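The instructor's notes for this session suggest beginning with a concrete chain rather than abstract definitions. Hand out the sequence below and ask the class to guess, before any prediction is shown, which regions might be ordered.
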Amino acid sequence: MSASTGPEMGDPPFDLTPQDVAALGDDLVAYHAHFTSLFLRSEQRVWSLKYLQGLLLPIASKSAETMALAVSDGNVRDMQRFVGQGVWDGDALLKRHIELVAESLGDAAGVLIVDGSDFPKQGCHSAGVARQYCGALGKVANCQAGVFLAYAAPQGHTLLDRRLYLPQAWLTEAYEDRREKCGIPKDVQFRTKPQLAWEMIQQVQSAGILPFSWVVCDEAFGDTPEFLEELERAEITYLAEVAVSTRVWLQSPRTEVVASKDPDRRPVRERVCADNAKPVRVDALAGQLPAEAWRTYQIKQGEKAPLQAQFAFVRAVAVRQKMPGPQVWVVLRRSLGDAPELKAYLSNATADVDLHELVRVSGQRWPIETCFKQAKGKLGMAEYQTRSWQGWHHHTTLVILAHHFLVLIRLKHKKGHRRLR
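After discussion, reveal the predicted structure:
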């Protein structure tokens, strides 16, 4: 099986020189024009364009100060004020952005991808900063944690939306002063990372503009049953990576209602009958499958060679709060080689789904990882110096727009100038 995730989904051009950025001036102005009506003040329109220019420039740092010094007629104080304290609606810009993504990349085979991306920090005064697991460092560290939504389709991939995770401690009385200094809105409530991811997915679905067939995610979201239940209620098809310790029933267990010990009360609790078979761990299930249950599939075309793995597929019943949940596909993926690594996924796809499609979608998390690498490595997504809640959302919004602009340039010039292919 060959998946459409190879060179035709090529990366946007990130090897731009200052001359390239200057040559793209008209394109950038035309792109920026899609958003100008969303800025209430003329100076905001000016500085938003300059900020995008700064993000695209090949300079060592993408802080507001260095970008202001690098762009024409830049002013450090004005640039910092624009991103950190400016009164403009980043969410409104992203709604317009999603409309543009629908025009440029929209495809019925599109996939929504949710993932976290973290930002190491030294101090304790940036909005949401805390000692927590930092994916960027691979350990618990002082950082801000973001949740992002991306879109991947045959024509390309880009980021769609972002949320800053606010740890529960930040909503306690002890953090009241920090919240005020960071400008965190008083109506912000605690949301888990899966809840933040669901909010973004729900907004895309409700808008009905951007077509997609799947939602994919890693264990951080797939191991949260409430997140999967939200997708199921919304009739969204997902393929969620889960821990190999996840348990499923191979057959739907019988249940019974437990009678109340109080004769005046009605039975109130349902449970699985004791004589049912216990749910099985998916790694144990993988070990029990016969050799003929495994087949080698090509997931996608890699840079040097096709990416292949062995797959097995089992219909099962999900475990939800110790009770039987919906019927799901257990997708087992085993790498090739002497020490194979096992990955497991759950999917609510229909029983008659093409198994090749499950294989294809299992390889669809890499676009958001690529977006993070590009946005952090080339567009300064992690190089902001603002500490405010608003500043973080403003900066990441403009990084998302800059990334999509380069995607558009690749689509426009993929058969043209050698630097823009």
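Then share the key points. The longest strand covers residues 139-153. Confidence is low (pLDDT under 50) at residues 1-9, 415-421.
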